[in-house]
Structure formats: C-alpha cells, structure tokens
Amino acid sequence: MRVLIQRCAYASCKVNGEVTGQIQNGMVCLVGFDKKDSLKEVEMLAKKTIGLRIFEDENHKMNLSVHEVNGSILAISQFTLYADCKHGNRPSFTEAMDFESAKELYDAYCKVLEANTISVQRGIFGADMKIELLNDGPVTIFLDSDCL
Fold it and tell me: 113: helix, coil or strand?
C-alpha cells in the first residue's frame, strides 16, 4: 500500500464538474494498493497518516498532527502510485490491485481515519477526478507499507 500525502491549505475533488469532496487546512491523501495488500496494511498506514506531525506548531516546527490542528483529509484513490516505468515509456500497472478489492481497502482506509475523529472527504473510486489543491509548504510525504 502506498499513500502520497500533501499538506494543503485547501483542496477539492470534482467528478463531471460536481464537487465530491472539499477541505480546508489538512491533507490530500492519494491512496493506492498492490496485489498483496490487506487490512493489516490499511490499518498501519491509516494510523501513520493520522499521527504524522507535518503541521507547524507555535515555533514554526513541524510538530503537530492533522488531528491537533483540527484538519481534514481528502482521500483519493490512486492506482497509478503503482506505475512501473522500468521498461520503456509507457507505465505498466500489473502490480496494482484489482478494482473491487482495492475499492474495499480504500473504503476501509477512510473508515479507519473517520473512526479516529478525522473529518474525511472523498473522491469517487475509479472515476476521472479533477483535484485542485494549494500545497502548503510545500510538504509532500510518501508512505509505503513495504518500507515500514
């Protein structure tokens, strides 16, 4: 499982011109799964997401979590996090999890975040989404369950 996290001042997701999720002050989490992922990885990375201290404290040090700043999360499914570009210029996605299984894990990831009193907005799984955000910092963190 991989999560690409961007701290943001605001973010929104649109599908067919309609806003499906919108936040102020928080994180955009692009979430992808590979064939071997399970609920174990989901719980581990959701808790890591919540606990990341990437927001500034009164001393301008990254020392606060999304929860501590009353921030929100915009969670977006993103199978392209498993793009393999080793051979040629066209990415291969053979390691990405199948649609139905990945949808289940994406929903589980969002539910773990919500269970920890985090306000979560979502995109629409598998849709052509347009994401707009103002990256704050910029701060971008990449989590990979294989590296934790």
Answer: helix
Q: Is 80 a catalytic residue?
A: yes
In the residue annotation, 79 being an active-site residue is answered as yes
Catalytic residue chosen out of the listed positions 80, 99, 140, 142: 80
Q: 61 burial class (0-12, 13-18, 19+ CB within 10 angstroms)?
A: exposed
| Rounded Cα–Cα distance for residues 25 and 66 (Å) | 9
Residue ranges of domains in the chain, CATH in brackets: 2-147 (3.50.80.10)
pLDDT of 67 over the 90 cut: yes
**Options 6, 20, 49, 78, the catalytic residue:** 78
Distance of alpha carbon 128 from alpha carbon 110, whole angstroms = 19
Token digits for 109? Answer: 């990831």
pTM given for the model: 0.96
What is the distance between the alpha carbons of residues 95 and 62, in angstroms, rounded to a whole number?
Answer: 34
Catalytic residue among 33, 55, 79, 125: 79
Average pLDDT over all residues of the chain: 97
Predicted pLDDT of residue 141: 97
Q: Is the pLDDT of residue 66 over 90?
A: yes
